[in-house]
Design goal:
Layout lengths: L6 H10 L2 H6 L5 E3 L2 E4 L11 E4 L4 E4 L5 E3 H9 L3 H11 L8 H7 L4 H23 L4 H9 L4 H6 L3 E3 L5 H8 L4 H6 L3 E3 L6 E3 L4 E7 L5 E8 L7 E3 L12 E2 L1 H11 L1 E5 L2 H9 L5 E4 L6 H8 L4 E5 L4 H16 L3 E4 L8 H7 L2 H9 L3 E2 H8 L9 H16 L4 H14 L4 H21 L7 H11 L2 H15 L1 H11 L7 H16 L5 H7 L3 H11 L9 H32 L3 H17 L1
Parallel strand pairs: 13-14, 13-15, 15-16
Antiparallel strand pairs: 1-2, 2-3, 3-4, 4-5, 6-9, 7-8, 9-10, 10-11, 12-14, 16-17
Helix pairs in contact: 1-4, 3-4, 15-16, 18-19, 18-20, 22-23, 22-24, 22-27, 27-28
Bound molecules: zinc ion.
Length: 602
Amino acid sequence: MADRIAEEKIEQIRQAVDIVEVISDYVGLKKQGRNYFGLCPFHGESTPSFSVSPDKQIFHCFGCGAGGNVFSFLMELEGISFQEAAMKLAARGNINLEINLSSTHSEKKISDELQAMLDAHELLRKFYHHLLVNTKEGQHALEYLLGRGFTLESIEKFQIGYSLNSWDFVYKFLTKRDFSPEWMEKAGLIIKREKDGTYFDRFRDRIMFPIFNRNGNTIAFSGRTLGADEPKYLNSPETAIFNKSKILYNYNLAKPSIKKSQQAVLFEGFADVISADRAGIENGIATMGTSLTDDHIALLRTSAQTITICYDSDKAGIEAAFRAGNHLNDAGFQIKVALMPDGMDPDEYIKKNSPEKFRGEVIGASLTWMAFKILYFRRGKNLQNEGDRLAYIEQIVKEITKLTKAVEKDHYLRQIAAEFSLSLDSLKQQEQQIYFAEKKKEIGKNEPKSKPILVQKKVNELKPAYYRAERCLIAHMLKSRDNTYKVQELLQGDTFNEDEHQAIITYLLAFYEEHINPDSSAFLSYIHDENLRRIVANIEMMSINDELSHQELTDYIKQVLKHKKLLKIKEKEAELKEAERHSDFRLAAAIGNEINQLRKSL
Ligand SMILES: [Zn+2]
């Protein structure tokens, strides 16, 4: 992994930066004992199971298993190569790396094909934009956009373009530049004809909206029709570089503003983001036609605490807002919901009213999550009807019990009491009853959904003794070179039962050939396999005794070997049965003897 940057340089970088400081840029960390804890940026959770060890300079998540050192943290979170991570950290630690960007560019782990996909998108984005803004061919499209309220600034900012009304322009444009048609088809830019294997352009005579990844690379397009053609928006298909479940539209441009305010506004579609940006909302983002995924949430967690959901106010929009809100709420975000008047989308609202009104009376006047739910559960109910009314009140009181702040609970209970002329005391009583009933249910469940730490511990407890013994041994081997050699000696050529554990030991032995002292973070850089890296980070976070006594050591080794013997006995027992079935009593007796010997040695 680190072939091109000298080992000493990497060592220097590692010395110069502190993993706690680096991770603090992305995750709120709190010290607890020797380690720091926070909400994991790699999976959605509301209870912190993400830990960082300043002593070992590593991180590990007990919830999803993510783990590694400061380099792997940046690589995974930012989706960048080792070299790029090293450069970022070197800059942070004021270390001169003496490699230029172009050489790291060519060393990126990204394959040639993926790079070609990115290059083709980049080229087309520029070309489409040029066609729209500067040419006669694009003039009608530009006029169309301006007529619909787009400004030249937003056309520039979002790099909007136009694709020619041609069946093979893009095909020719790309193949002339040596892009392989097969890969351009895989990139979703051209389509292969079934009957004769020739290609045609996917996007023709459409307004082109480029879709960027978080690093600002163009990875897909959405093409909007100028007329009545269907579909109104034609999107790139999912490709090796475009994964809808990971992409938030405009995140690359919005990130600084989101980080600064710790707030993001989530819109239903990317067109809403562009309209809202015109009204001065710069922290707008949208999913690409999918509902919110855990990957989206993990991305948002690195920059925001509060999410304002601003979806269309039609039935589908309200339902979608409710789902997104629940998902975000479970993940620990503060949620607000901005409601637009009946059936309008942001674009219509801004046109009909004004950007100021949109900022002030829609976004600025957004409801708390609880206030939204009070409206949400009211829909479709006839509150004049006593049955409906009681069901509704119970539903709302149930929601109120989920609030964590007493002041909030009190506020909404009063609101309900006033609206339905109920006694506040009896509502409070009802709230308490539901609260304790829910608590009881939770205690009954053995795996609460929001507590990954507990779940993970359970998993470990179920593992057999040898598994734990192997992990404890590895934990001690990671801490001491002496222990490593002692374990090797006692094993006398035998190996650990878990392949992954044995693989870690193989890496560790090689590491100690080159390094005199143990070093958790350096060792993690040494392992190329991500899964093994995660396991090592997990083992590093185990609590073990400082010293490994001879008794403890031999006990663990015994457990490891015992499992092997038990397997052997099982094998022999099957052979014994087979021998008996064939009435080969001499062989059966011999095998029986072997089994007895093995049993004795346990
Ligand atoms: Zn995690």
